[in-house]
Automatic annotation (TrEMBL):
Signal peptide as annotated in the record: 1-23
Membrane topology: Single-pass type I membrane protein
Designated name of the protein: L-type lectin-like domain-containing protein
Pfam families: Lectin_leg-like
Gene3D superfamilies: 2.60.120.200
Species classification: Eukaryota, Choanoflagellata, Craspedida, Salpingoecidae, Monosiga
GO biological process, one term: endoplasmic reticulum to Golgi vesicle-mediated transport
UniProt cross-references to SUPFAM superfamilies, sorted A to Z: Concanavalin A-like lectins/glucanases
GO cellular component: COPII-coated ER to Golgi transport vesicle; endoplasmic reticulum membrane; endoplasmic reticulum-Golgi intermediate compartment; Golgi membrane
Length: 372
């Protein structure tokens, strides 16, 4: 019975360690961290300086988070990296919280930016319109009342500096890709991970603190030049919310997996992109070729249609087992896994060795000691 008890205890310890390792791998970047593009607690140095980052507008710093906007009307604030991103590929993991008193009415949302400009306040989720580069919007208020009850409407847009963001249509006819996510008023931190590698843009979210990523969109054939700036901004209007940033971690991304490479080939062959409208013009191509975005307005576009390939974030894995497999494949690829699993093996060997010593050496010695 003692042997079974020891083995059971050892297994419980191993299971707990495995869970901790899985969570740690999920929360940590897979590659080398770029400290000049990373922000974690404590945010301020002893000299009350926040290295490599600027906060503007109504943004304030606390010990536990950076609040871009309070739960008050007509506020806007931003957090901007002061160093341009010199690498051509990157991965950014952001922990955040969106919360407030409103139960049915709240807004407006926040945005992640990779743009030529920085530290600019404006009317597009707290930053300026006519930006040059990438924007990912987490829109919590629908001007068209078409996706408001679904939570945040998450969309990616690229602008070359000439396009007016269409607030009235929530940018739905300008986006490259989109999904919905119920990320507001959670008891825990929520997070997203955006990666850019091999000219492919991918966004994943974990809004349930499940230590598991779910894909929002996957867009190939995107050209983002280096030496742009990372930023996160937020805004409130007649409706409001707290928009908090807890941490930003930027790292070297892993290469595309074999499954992702197959997806890129399939999407390029079909001319489609995950989460986009049918017939959507290729915004990434336009930026790549330096052609004016104005020419795209010559063609009529659907704002909202039944055929829109929008990914429902909360159902994505149930509907597409391939996404679940790719997510597991991606999350298990971090280099820290090998070291941590090595610790598990050492613990297992130590446990077995302890059992052997107890049953084969110590007990026999004890028995011989009491024999007359």
């Amino acid at each position: 019975m003692e042997l079974r008890s020891i083995l059971a205890s050892t297994l419980l310890v191993l299971v707990a360690l495995a869970g901790a390792i899985s969570a740690q791998d999920h929360l940590q970047p897979a590659g080398a961290v770029y400290q000049e593009h990373t922000l974690t607690q404590p945010y301020l140095t002893s000299g009350l300086v926040m290295p490599f980052w600027d906060f503007i507008g109504h943004a304030v710093i606390s010990d536990e988070f950076i609040r871009l906007t309070p739960d008050r009307q007509s506020k806007r604030g931003g957090l901007w990296n002061s160093k341009p991103v010199s690498v051509s590929e990157w991965e950014v993991l952001v922990d955040f919280k969106v919360h407030g008193q409103g139960k049915n009415l709240y807004g407006d949302g926040f945005a992640f930016w990779y743009t030529k400009e920085k530290n600019m306040l404006g009317d597009v989720f707290g930053s300026k319109d006519h930006w040059t580069g990438l924007a990912i919007f987490f829109d919590t208020y629908s001007n068209q009342q078409l996706h408001h009850q679904e939570g945040a409407y998450v969309s990616a847009l690229i602008n070359d500096g000439t396009i007016d963001y269409d607030h009235d249509a929530d940018g739905t006819h300008q986006q490259m890709a989109s999904c919905t996510a119920k990320l507001r008023n959670k008891d825990h931190a929520t997070r997203f991970r955006v990666s850019y590698r091999s000219n492919t843009l991918k966004l994943e979210l974990d809004v349930e603190n499940a230590n598991e990523w779910t894909e929002c969109f996957f867009v190939p054939d995107v050209n983002l030049p280096p030496n742009y700036y990372f930023g996160i901004s937020a805004a409130t209007g007649d409706l409001a919310d707290n928009h908090d940033v807890i941490s930003v971690r930027t790292s070297d991304p892993p290469p595309l997996t074999e499954g992702e490479q197959d997806r890129v080939k399939a999407l390029e062959a079909s001319g489609e992109k995950m989460g986009t409208d049918d017939g959507q013009d290729k915004f990434a191509d336009a930026l790549k070729k330096k052609t004016p975005f104005a020419r795209f307005h010559e063609r009529a576009r659907r704002h909202i249609g039944e055929q829109r390939k929008r990914t429902d974030f909360n159902q994505a894995k149930k509907k597409d087992p391939v996404l679940a497999r790719l997510s597991r494949e991606r999350d298990s690829s971090g280099p820290s896994s090998f070291l941590l699993w090595g610790v598990l093996i050492v613990v297992l060997i130590a446990g077995i060795g302890g059992v052997y010593y107890k049953t084969q050496v110590y007990d026999k010695s004890k028995k011989q000691h009491f024999e007359f």
